[in-house]
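#structure-requests
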Amino acid sequence: MPEDYYDQSPDGNIRATEAVMNTVRAADLLMDRIGRALRPLGVSQAGGLVLGVLRDHGAMPPSQLGERLIVSRATVTGLVDSLEGAGFVQRTPHPEDRRSLMVELTPAGLDVVARLRPLVHEAEKAWLSGLSDEELAQLIGLLHRVQQSLEDNPEA
């Protein structure tokens, strides 16, 4: 941190700034590692999330998929287009609403999810192997508190 931190930001908190910077850096590194782990399977991090949601919850309309992933309709369309092009998902008519579509896994998509999850979970274990189970529990608790604070103060 710069020596004149408090001159620049008298109401700031140098530890809060450092914590945010380190959290963002760790998240960036983890996202990069996840992306590299998934690349051989032909799926992105976001695509892997879509496949996991469909595997766990079954076929659903794109709008519901977007709600679960907290992304825009355009983002869902792009993800589904990409996954459909790879043969991992397919769009089918909605059984109750002929104006809507459902997104569902194909057998190839199921195969990718079956390979994806153990790959990522083993990597996660290695990435965080420098922390004990107790430290991991503390980290999870602290991150939950940060998330709750962000949710409780959306304007801050």
